[in-house]
Fold Cation:proton antiporter.
Amino acid sequence: MVILLVCSMVSMLLWSLVSERLRRWHVSGPLAMVATGLVIGFILREDVAEHLNTDLAERTVEIILALLLFVDATEVRGGFLGGERKIVGRLLGIALPLSLLVTVAVGIPMLGVTSIGVVLAIACIVLPIDFAPAAEILRDPGIPRRLRHGLAVESGYNDGIFSPLFAFALLLLGLPGHTTSPLEALEDAVPAFGFAVLVGVGIGGLTGLLARAASRREWVTSHGLRIAMVLIPLVTYAAATAIGGNGFVAAFLAGIAYKMTRLGRAHSHDDVAHSELSLVDEIGQMSALVMWSMFGVVTALVFFTPFEWAWVVFALLALTVFRAIPVYAAFLGSGLSLREQTALGVLGPRGTSSVVFGLLAFNAMRDDDAYAAMYVMVMTVLGSVILYGVFGARAARRLVGPGARERGSGSM
């Protein structure tokens, strides 16, 4: 694992020195890191699985996810629902649970794994949307603002919602060679979630109040606040896991609580100042690049895994049908045009979140199940990079049409 991390950091260093030139060639950071990860994976292919299946690998991806969750929670634009309560409410409250049910129902007979816990974990891998591979979609003025903002908020909250579900799925696996009943897993998951709420809200809320008071009295510099923003998710994650809580949920809730208390009720719809978020945001982006490099390494491993049509088809369904149909159902009677509903259903790229959950599942599962989870993750993310990175923005503009773009631009 140390070798993989060193190679990834060297690759990032080289990319950073020529990033502008690569950008002109439409080579993004994630794409460059996937390519270098592939090379590393082919060179170290005999030891890749051994390097990834270590405590160091697991802790690394867990800390990265905690950072990303915290940043997602603090960077939601225009208030906690991005000013699009109706769209976000239907996406998260109706479409997401329906997607989960459909994915699990299809996955049980299709994936050929050992338990429902494995299927649930794989569902948590393939469903969270993440615009890292197709960030230009959220900046494209040809797509109505209300759709872009709704998708951005959904992406921000996805990880925080799927994290406890993923942890519950792993609890269902129980000890090696055995499965735990849903009731026993729930008995473990509920206290873990409760501890996460206490730690996340407590640390995030307290540090937000302290930062607000220190700023008013000019006791802290912007440099000090930037350092504090990096430490908050790390301290929160460590404290939550130390007492048996879910560190991912705690980090996400810490971001929400920090924003609430840092800004105060009167400014609850404002954003945390970029001068405070810049350091943790850049570290989060750098950590995400490490994940893309690891994804490239894992992709190389898939080339040496027996081909399974069922896993490939399942990944393609996860990118399309498992999201689109629940979105159509969720927006019945919503007033959105069919074109806009289609855009919301089609625009669902997968990225860093799927990679992190996939690597954690690979470490937690037995061999056959681990390779199934890894294979499906790779096919889903690769398909997302190709589908959304190349065609996403252009397809979305055609879907919504010029009339929807004009209506959407003035809806805010």
